[in-house]
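Subject: design request, 389 residues
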């Protein structure tokens, strides 16, 4: 006879823990979009002003150097990364780092689509980092700052050479506004509004250093360049792209939502407070994991444990005794139990990751909601374990 443990008394006020699109900022409502520049051209004076406000506020809040450029580009973070790879790679050999699915995606693009020669892939399994000491900065280097599907991030920028011949191209979509990034170490940085800002999807952000800008103007790729990837005209930088003249038509509703998110960031204390919020949120889960024998972090080293996309694995002996298919099914049942109760939505591990859970802890999540979630995780695990025993 199986028994169902009692349901916890307290529920998260906000059960949204998806790792993308991530939960909106606290207190958000559709009223935040009432000033959106709808029914107007994005090239109108009013439309360009809203777009430029996103660029200017992003620059200020992130503390970008004055000689770095920032642009809104098509197709979310993926589009921003692809623009960088297609536009900048070719003159040098490449080191590409992969320790989870999105990093592996950039390997595929570089090796199988661009078909570059002299590519080294530095790989690690889920939960670990490649040996960062092996990276050769005479080459171009492509990496994710924070592995969204593994919960593993680089510990800092100390491993990146100050004096380097190649460019560093960093997919930082789940890191920007959650880490204090060392801009002098990053030549290309990409992210999307839908992650740490809790904004809407479909638009990417692209940040370029002077070294990246010089490469753009000195290098002509040997392959055809789609219009949405082109950042130069006549061999010179298209400056309009970096002042609000987007390549294609953006959603002005999404632009307004991004502007609202940025204003909220400023109101709570800017980047330092966003970094602190993510660390405090991670701390809630660290305290729970330390006291909970059935679960552990997928990240093996605490120094490289992500404070945003926190990935957990099940380590209970009962679970370890199941075959791979049963483990995957069991983890799904636990996630389904949380969703059925309306207490934890979209917490399943990424489809390519080991069975477990992925809980977003970026700055738009409240500590109190995470504290309310953890008893429900215990409840769901015990419920599924008892039903399968």
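Subject: RE: design request

Done. Sequence follows.
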């Amino acid at each position: 006879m199986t028994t169902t443990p009692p349901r916890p008394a307290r529920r998260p006020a906000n059960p949204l823990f998806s790792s993308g699109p991530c939960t909106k900022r606290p207190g958000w409502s559709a009223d935040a979009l009432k000033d959106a520049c709808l029914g107007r051209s994005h090239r109108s004076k009013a439309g360009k002003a809203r777009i430029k406000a996103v660029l200017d506020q992003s620059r200020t809040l992130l503390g970008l150097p004055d000689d770095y450029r920032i642009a809104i580009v098509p197709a979310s973070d993926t589009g921003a990364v692809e623009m960088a790879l297609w536009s900048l790679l070719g003159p040098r050999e490449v080191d590409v780092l992969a320790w989870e699915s999105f990093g592996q995606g950039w390997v595929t693009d570089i090796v199988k689509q661009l078909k570059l020669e002299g590519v080294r892939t530095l790989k690690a399994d889920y939960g670990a980092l490649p040996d960062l000491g092996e990276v050769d900065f005479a080459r171009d280097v492509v990496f994710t700052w924070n592995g969204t599907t593994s919960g593993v991030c680089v510990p800092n920028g100390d491993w990146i050479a100050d004096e380097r011949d190649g460019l560093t191209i960093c997919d930082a979509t789940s890191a920007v506004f959650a880490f204090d990034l060392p801009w002098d170490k990053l030549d290309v940085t990409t992210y999307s509004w839908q992650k740490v800002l809790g904004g809407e999807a479909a638009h990417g952000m692209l940040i370029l250093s002077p070294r990246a800008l010089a490469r753009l103007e000195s290098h002509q790729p040997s392959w055809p360049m789609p219009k949405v990837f082109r950042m130069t005209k006549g061999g010179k930088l298209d400056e309009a792209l970096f002042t609000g003249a987007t390549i294609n038509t953006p959603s002005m509703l999404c632009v307004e939502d991004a502007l609202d998110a940025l204003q909220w960031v400023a109101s709570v204390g800017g980047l330092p407070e966003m970094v602190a919020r993510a660390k405090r949120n991670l701390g809630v889960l660290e305290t729970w994991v330390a006291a909970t024998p059935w679960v552990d972090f997928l990240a093996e080293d605490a120094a490289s444990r992500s404070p945003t996309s926190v990935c957990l694995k099940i380590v209970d002996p009962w679970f370890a005794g199941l075959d791979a298919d049963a483990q995957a099914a069991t983890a799904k049942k636990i996630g389904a139990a949380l969703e059925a109760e309306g207490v934890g939505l979209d917490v399943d591990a990424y489809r390519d990751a080991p069975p477990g859970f992925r809980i977003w802890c970026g700055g738009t999540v409240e500590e109190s909601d995470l504290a309310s979630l953890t008893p429900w995780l215990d409840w769901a695990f015990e419920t599924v374990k008892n039903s399968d025993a």
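The radius of gyration is 22 Å.
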